[in-house]
Amino acid sequence: MHGRVSNSKDVPSIGGAMTSKSQMPAGATCYRHTDRQGGVRCQRCDRNICPDCMITASVGFHCPECVGNARRPNRVERNPFSFDPLVVKSLIVMNVILFVVGAGMGDGIQGQISSEGLIIRGGLFSGFPDWYRVITSGFLHYGFVHLAFNMYALWLLGPSFERTLGRFRFSLFYFSAVITGSFGAMLWSPNSLTVGASGAIFGLLGLATVAQRSSGYSIWRSGLGMILLLNFVLTFTVSSISVGGHLGGFAAGLIIGWMVFDLPKRVQMPKYLPETVIILLSGACYLGTLAIS
Known about the structure:
- The structure is a single chain.
- 53% of the residues lie in helices and 8% in strands.
- Helix 2 (86-104) packs antiparallel against helix 5 (143-165).
- The protein has helices at 64-70, 86-104, 118-122, 133-136, 143-165, 167-188, 198-214, 219-222, 224-237, 243-262, 273-292, and strands at 2-7, 16-20, 40-41, 48-49, 55-56, 61-62, 193-195.
């Protein structure tokens, strides 16, 4: 769905390829059961809900009250666009600004790389001496098309999860997917110069996969299955796409999605477990990326 490109240039699909060349305070309680952790927000009203109050929706969960209101005739609908996805907007702005700055330093809008540009200075490759490349590589792109596909995918997938998870947890997840994508890219093709937000986009795809399955929806009926199939076919057939970057991000989405959407239905989780797992996973992959380099 987007790609991290390896230049070993990434042709993005719905997200772009990673190419190689609400805010919810931890420990918030359910609005109906104040003695229980509300680790997820209702997709409609933004209130925190516990596993017993989660009613499956196409993406994420609804609370019993919103579901009840939705079944009443002549109801007044909440404006679906009332939520402002500030984190997603900020991420898109950051990517666009870095692209413009890189173009001003010599990186071409059609994928050309300048020895003085940002791609060389911030991209990921074996032997890099700079610790920040693990993250900056996820905010740089090979040309305008690569950037446009990835940002379009982020805009399609990100807002619903920013609202469901909360801004803080969504931000943690996004950067975790960037880092795990970098780790996968270094494992798969360490000698390729890799940039792109596709690791994070594939992380969102993994998150969506778990959310839909946990909600009882078939990913094939919803259309997500075909999107996944198309993106993985492109990942393994287009030589410029970073396979490891996509797989690493997708794995992060599956793991964290299971922690957030599925596990709370089965067991009573400690308050800070999802955030702790995200931080530990990110730290391990970050150190692993540095070790490989």
